[in-house]
Design goal:
The chain has 21 helices and twelve strands. The protein has 535 residues and is an alpha+beta fold. Strand 2 and strand 3 form a beta hairpin. It is globular and about 80 Å long.
């Protein structure tokens, strides 16, 4: 590889290298020093790289080796020696220590022991069990118990003579949310969400093992949670194959859209977002009256509700009638922002696109979409924009009875609801999904026929090419940026699912339209991006 191209790759990777170092050091200054050492080593080792396609693997290998050497240089010996005979008598382990500081070190190291070592140490020294009793309890030989005690003693002694460096995650944990797309059942998706989304420890395990393979001990130091409290989550994450264990070390097996990725890609895509906001905003201003003349069923009581519906629809596939007249490449573009068929990966018991998103202050918010239909061909669509503080998707997802009640009311049903249905309807009224006018129940969000909605989509075909052009360009930027911020072991996954971040792009466009007063934030009693299509 020529020097100019090599230097350019290093410059592009500098931010990623710094993020990698920041997660492994206690201060920004240490991270900067370590980053410089890695970059210097990369420059020195240039001639060792024969294939430019292997640059990132080459870079992470050097980064890992430099980090190991850096830790060794910083290690300090603590003047303390653990009695070599601790496993030869029944004296409690803590009584063999001379200073209170030694006791703190011992407890620290006990928290870093893996389960097999920790169990025998606790049973022997703290529970006062004999070797023979431990052997029976754990169903292992007495010689194995003695070996584990001997090995544990050495591990404890070495650990207590080391200075442990805690990672940033110990005092500044990340917040990750897991996205699941393309799963065959809601239960599959729910099992993944339940494991990670409300579990800060699981989230930070995934983050700690993202750019580097880590042992349980290293993870413990990164997030300052003792190994015993990690083991259950480590096991479950491995069972779901979100985490993979190789040779005693763990590595994350899903792509994470990190803060650094979001900041870099958003900056690069801002011109496209502004142009999209202008294109869609101009369309709304010029065609709103014409669209209002379609005579919708109900639920659209002011222009803002209709503007939200039009803005969101601008990013959806065109009507089937229009799509039939488009070429294959335009059909592919029309799938945005939904799955294009790429990125599906087989995990344990589930085939889906699974990814993580790091949340941070001023991240720009998110978008959650959902659609449900019945046997009659009626459809309900949801798009929860965080700027509107909506949570309609989660309220209706996995609750088909609630969806069916909506369809019944959209069709004009007034009576004949079951007792359970009436309980749900009372909650609907409370949440402003419906309003009651005498005996009539009316949905408080747009209801259209498929024919009316197709008219809107056909009109949007006038700006479809401009929208698709901007989306395609932004898509390419997101994918190339994501690949640079992804570990070499899952770079192929990043190439396949980079388009998922299209939703973040849509949120950015909507925020610009809000700032420009093209749209207005929804009030508590409005659900502008939730609508029903009647067949």
């Amino acid at each position: 590889m020529d020097k100019e191209k090599y230097d350019k790759l290093i410059a592009e990777a500098a931010k990623t290298i710094f993020s990698y170092c920041r997660a492994r050091t206690n201060s920004k200054e240490d991270a900067e020093d370590l980053s410089q050492e890695i970059i210097l080593k990369l420059l020195i080792k240039q001639e060792n790289l024969r294939d430019d396609r292997a640059f990132y693997g080459f870079m992470w290998t050097i980064a890992g080796n430099v980090c190991k050497e850096w830790y060794k240089k910083r290690a300090k010996n603590i003047e303390f020696e653990l009695d070599e005979n601790i496993s030869d008598d029944d004296t409690p382990l803590v009584e063999l220590l001379e200073k209170e500081s030694d006791l703190k070190l011992l407890y620290r190291e006990l928290g870093l022991l893996t389960e097999q070592y920790r169990k025998v140490v606790v049973m022997y020294y703290f529970d006062d069990l004999k070797v023979s009793d431990i052997s029976k309890s754990l169903n292992i030989s007495e010689s194995m118990v003695k070996f584990l005690l001997f090995k544990s003693r050495k591990i404890l002694k070495e650990g207590m003579n080391m200075e442990r460096t805690k990672g940033d995650l110990s005092f500044n944990p990340v917040n990750l949310s897991i996205g699941v797309m393309g799963a065959t059942s809601a239960e599959d998706s729910q099992s993944i969400w339940n494991l990670v989304n409300d579990n800060l420890i699981a989230q930070n395990i995934l983050f700690a093992c993202y750019n580097d393979r880590c042992t349980a001990e290293e993870i413990s130091l990164q997030i300052e949670v003792a190994v015993p409290y990690l083991e259950k989550d480590l096991k479950k994450l491995c069972e779901k194959e979100l985490l993979i264990k190789k040779g005693g070390k763990y590595e994350t097996n899903i792509v994470i859209f990190t803060k650094e990725f979001f900041q870099e890609s958003n900056e690069k895509r801002l011109p496209m977002q502004r142009e999209l906001a202008e294109i869609i905003g101009r369309f709304i201003n010029e065609r709103l009256d014409e669209i209002k003349s379609f005579g919708f069923c109900r639920g659209i009581e002011d222009d803002n509700m209709l503007k939200w519906l039009i803005a969101y629809t601008a990013f959806l596939p065109p009507s089937q009638e229009s799509a039939e007249n488009r070429k294959a490449k335009e059909q592919k573009k029309a799938d945005f922002p939904y799955p294009r068929g790429g990125g599906i990966k087989k995990y344990a018991g589930i085939e889906a696109i699974i990814y993580g998103e790091e949340h941070y202050p001023n991240s720009g918010g998110g978008l959650t979409t959902l659609s449900r239909s019945n046997t009659n061909g009626d459809k309900i669509m949801f798009a929860d924009f965080s700027v509107n503080a909506e949570a309609d998707c989660s309220y209706f997802d996995s609750y088909p009875n609630r969806v069916n009640i909506v369809f019944d009311i959209a069709r004009g049903k007034k009576t004949g609801f079951s007792e359970n249905d009436m309980v749900e309807i009372a909650e609907f009224i409370k949440r402003r999904f419906i309003k009651k006018d005498g005996d009539n129940l009316n949905l408080n969000f747009p209801v259209l026929t498929n024919e009316q909605y197709d008219k809107i989509k056909n009109m949007l075909d006038d700006i479809r090419d401009d929208v698709c052009r901007n989306l395609d360009e932004a898509d390419k930027i997101a994918i190339s940026t994501l690949v640079q911020h992804t570990p070499v072991s899952i770079k192929k996954d990043a190439e396949n699912i980079g388009w998922v971040n299209a939703r973040n792009l849509v949120v950015g466009v909507v925020k610009i339209m809000l700032d420009n007063s093209i749209l207005r934030r929804a009030t508590d009693n409005e659900h502008p991006t939730m609508f029903v299509l009647l067949a």
